[in-house]
Specification:
3 domains, oxidoreductase activity, acting on paired donors, with incorporation or reduction of molecular oxygen, monooxygenase, oxidoreductase, metal-binding
Length: 171
């Protein structure tokens, strides 16, 4: 009798998670359609559970090459890939290095964006409370402080500095 209730409870929870996931996917598709966005390519896991990317990422982080891992992962998917979808178990991340996406998040359509609780909790011990860890009104306030740094002149200066910096290492 208890087994029946337990199985019913687990089945109900499983069904709830599936329906919630499908609703979220539909919401993302509607939002992407409204903005005329194409879905980003996916960094695929090599195992059934979807943990191979997580394992690679954790290993790279332990070796102090986390950002390099992201660049390498994007380059593996395609040389011109600048935004990537990374599913891990039941969680999904979007990672970008596209300047237009970054400007949209921090400037042009910043009111539409928030960060996940997972990211906030993960970076809080390292970074404290700020733009990379806050949510809601605190995050919007932090974004408002850095928004002037993403105006056209500042971004152009940053782009030129990056190019100059890269060239200095080539010689």
């Amino acid at each position: 009798m208890y087994l029946f209730y337990l199985l019913s409870l687990l089945s109900g929870f499983g069904l709830y998670k599936i329906v919630s996931f499908l609703r979220k996917v539909q919401q993302y598709r509607e939002e992407a359609s409204k903005r005329a966005c194409f879905p980003p390519p996916t960094l695929r896991s090599t195992n059934f559970l979807g943990t191979s990317v997580l394992k690679e990422s954790l290993k790279a982080t332990k070796e102090d090459r986390g950002p390099q891992f992201i660049v390498e992962a994007m380059d593996r998917v395609g040389k011109n890939v600048h935004t990537l979808r990374v599913p891990v178990l039941y969680y999904e991340m979007l990672v970008t290095r596209d300047l237009e996406n970054i400007k949209a998040i921090f400037s042009t359509s910043s009111a539409d964006w928030d960060i996940s609780t997972t990211r906030a909790n993960a970076f809080m011990p390292l970074l404290g409370e700020g733009i990379f860890t806050s949510r809601g009104l605190k995050w919007k306030h932090s974004r408002a402080i850095v928004r002037p740094q993403f105006n056209k002149g500042e971004v152009l200066t940053w782009s030129l500095s990056t190019i100059t910096f890269r060239h200095s290492f080539e010689y």
